[in-house]
Every structure is written in C-alpha cells, then in structure tokens.
Fold this protein.
Amino acid sequence: MTSIFRSVMLAVTLALVGVMTTQPARALVEIDVNKGVIEPLPIAITEFLSGDTLGKEISDIVAADLQRSGLFAPIDRGAFIEKISNPDAAPRFEDWKVINAQALVTGRVTQESDGRVRAEFRLWDTFAGQQLIGEQFFASKANTRRVAHIIADAIYERLTGEKGYFDTRIVFIDESGPKNQRKKRLAIMDQDGANARYLSDGRAIALTPRFSPNRQEITYMSYESGQPQVYLLQIETGQRELVGNFPGMTFAPRFSPDGQKVIMSLLRDDGNSNIYTLDLRSRTTTRLTDSSAIDTSPSYSPDGTQIVFTSDRGGRAQIYVMNADGSNQRRISFGDGSYSTPVWSPRGDLIAFTKQSGGEFQIGVMRTDGSGERILSSGFSQEGPTWAPNGRVIMFFRQPAGSAGPRLFSIDLTGRNEQPIASPNFASDPAWSPLLE
Amino acid sequence: MRRIAALTRNPAAIALFMALAVTGCASKKVPNNPADLGLGSATPGSTQDFTVNVGDRIFFDTDSTLIRADAQATLAKQAQWLNQYGSYAITVEGHADERGTREYNLALGARRAAATRDFLVARGVAANRIKTITYGKERPVAVCDDISCWSQNRRAVTVLSGAGS
C-alpha cells in the first residue's frame, strides 16, 4: 500500500485540509511553499463500453467534472495502451503505470429490458494494483448525465476523502437584452451548465433565487406584483406563493438550514431595511434587527444558531454576525473597503463575501470571527458568492465593464482554479443546491 | 384651454419650450420643428410639463442618500408643481449605480426614494399620494463603465400616474 498513488492521494487530501484548517492565510502559503504547486492527479478515464454512444457520453462527463475540480488531470485517451474489452477483469496495471495514470476508471453501460440504463464502473489504484470502488447505477435514459455526475462524485470522494459536488444544480438569473432594459428570468441548470431551463417567464424582474435544504423549492425576489417581494417556488410543479403578508417591500431571502423559515429584509416606511424571519408553518414573523440603517443579505450558519448579514450602521457596508434570535449583534469585518453578501459555508468554518476596495470588487473568505481574510478573485465587478455543498468551491458572477452582461464562474478555496460556467445567456445570482443525501 | 391659446399666440413662449425640451433630458426624443412639438403634450399640468419644465429626477453622490443642494432646488420645484396639480398619484423610484452589490443596492435605492418622498412631504405634498419603490441597480438609464454614467444612474425619479388637473 505504499504506492505512489497513495502518497499523491495524501497530497491532495493534505492540500484540502490545509485550506480549511483554522490557521491564518499564511499557513496555506507555507504548505504551497513546501509542496510546490498542487499537481492535479493524473487519472485515466476510459470510454465505458456500450453498444451506442452512451458509454462515451458518461465517461466524458465524468472526466469533465473531475478536470474542472482542479484536483485531477484526465489523461488523453490517445495515450492509452490497453484497450479495455472486459471491464469486469483486472486491467494490465503496467500499461497504465507507464503512462503515469495514478488511477484508472473503467465501466460499462447497458440497456435493461425495462428500458432503463445500467451504468457500472470500477476505480482502480494502478500502482497498488487493486480496485478501490466497484458500483452500478440504474437510471432512466433521461437521467444519464446525473448518473455520470454521481460516478464523478464517488471517484472524487474516494480519492480526496471529501464529499463530491457534481450531482448538484444551480438556480440563477438568466439575463438577456440591452443593459437598460434587461430581462431577468429565473432559471435552473446542472452545475456544469447542462439541462438549463427557465422557471419564470421574464415579464417581471426576478432576482436572488436560493435553494431550500431539500432542493425542492427556491425562494427568490420578484417584481411581479409591481414591487419587490419574496416568493416561494416549487421547482417541479411550478407552484408559486408570496412569502408572508408584509406591509412593504421584501428582498434578500434565504432558507434556514432546517427549511422551516425564510429570512429576508423588509423595507420600513422610512427607507431603512431590517431583517425578519417568516416561519413557513406557523406563518409567524419575527423581527431580528431594528436599526436606522441598511440591514440585509442574511445567511444562517449551518447549525442554525447564528446569522451573518450586511449592515451599514457603522457608515459603510460591513459584515455582522448575530445569534439566531437577533441578540449579540457584532461587527466582524474590519478591512479596508466595504463588505457585503456574506454567505456562511455549509461546513460552518468560513464566510464568503463580496468586498469593494480600491475600485475593484473582490470575492473572498474569512473565518466566522472575521479573522484570516483571504481574497480569491478580484475584478471590475463581481459579487454574489455561493458555496458548493462540500464547502471547497465558490461560484459567483462577474460583470465586465461596458454593456455586456454577467457570467458565472467557480473558484476553489486556493484561489488558483477558476473556471467559467457555461450558461445559455448572460447569467447572475447563482445559488448552488445542496447534495441529495 | 385659455393658457394654450395664449401660448400659441406667443412664439417666444414656444421657443422657450423648445430650449427646455432640448436641454431637459437627453434621453427623450426631441421634436425637430414646432409642428412636431405637440403643444398638447407640454400642456401646463401635464406629465410632459412636469418632466420637461420641472425635472422629474434628482441625482445622488456615491453610496449616499443625502439630498444635494441642486436636488433640493429640483424637489422644491417638484413640490410646488405637485401641490398645484393635486390629482396625480406619485411613485418615487430609487435607483443605484452598478458599484454596489445587488441586495445592498436594492436597500440603497429604497432609502433614496424615501429621502426624496420625505423632502416632498416636508414641502406640503400629501404623503398618501406618494408611493416609493426601489430598483436598485437593475434599471440603469446610462450604460457605460465610468463615473459619468454612474452619476446619472444614482437617481430618484418622480413618476406621475392617474388623471391630471
């Protein structure tokens, strides 16, 4: 078991741990200095055997997922020596070691008599000469992309020790038309940009969609009543409802981690905004802040005990944390510039934010007490971070200067692996779905 | 109607209207000749009259909701006009430039709308005539990536609806 593969695997795991430990940003740099740039793990992902194109489609999706993570380097199939003809038999490990494939994925896709697709795959440690995973999945033909993402998640999890995030979806705002009258529609797609579809007709501006913990609902803001108000939407049925019966404009909604509440901003008549919750069962509303200032962009900690939010009560927009009942409100951001859109990591350890400083917009993370700030990305205009469910990757949107529109990007916590996310049109306000358990 | 008749007999007044129309708002279509001016649309007490001769919008400094001195002058004229033509319903729209995040700018736009409303109310406009709404940075009028555009987008616009006088 003292294979090269194992040590590389350890390096990947270590790199991830380095990002997440509670040491200051300097510690991360130290790890980089000692280990050099983290080399993605070379992995051979063979075309799954099938009588049609499904095998190639699935293995291509697996390879693309793993590559975009920045932790894996799929090897060009043209370099493969062994042609896998029986995925049930052990491969010739020597043939894969020669091309430096630390890990190997083989598989087969077959049609069942009931019309379903059966996808089997095996993950091999080529240097140890052993199988690491062997699993099979059944799905309708329409769900083959999802099967591929589940396989990619299994590989990612086995090789990094971290939960994967490929079998997830993104709700976002699809933007089209000229900037001064841009159409802004709710839309949803897979995390890799596939299967995009609209969830609203675009007649009214819709903004800031966010998933419920069970992925079945989203809460968002829309102008469909003529003024900004927060709504709930059942994704599969399309059923919509207004959230609460508030006397004024509501915006910036998010679910509580148990899915029982929606937290949001309510605009008072004097123009200031406070943070409220609505209990979706009892319909009771609770006011959590009461300042003569802007209080908005609330986001719960994953255990539901704390809430991070934006307030300009100190002059400029800064990040504050309070207990879930509104007590003990305290400022945690003290850097040079203004801070907004704080989002608590699903792991609980970090808060992602948008920072405006020196004429630029930056996406960064800090610990929950405000220490250890690290900027991951800077640009003319970018905002709106959302976390992958494993807390390792952040998606956000970036707007170039001029009349062009925004696009989605992902970046890992090292700040090194930035990836554009495909979308049908301009896109903004991404929100990453949780993983299905 | 007597007022229109008086205007049409007075070429100097028409010329003045033209000049105001040209300088008033660059984004509006400007008629090329007096025949196209459509005096009906510039009837005193009309929404056109309000937009062109009073000014329907004020501008703000970056990340500020303070009503500037130039804006106070515009709002004073607005209040006088609105008090004279009391049957319009009023919506004050608050807007922000793109140099802020989406949710924060929705809040900022709301504050600008409220500050504008409060000024009008202090000048005698009935509070129950005025609604406010925020568009944050979602509806820019000027599209570019420098200060000249941003300053035009940081605005509160007084929009009239309902019957006139």
Helices of chain A lie at 4-20, 25-35, 54-68, 93-98, 144-160.
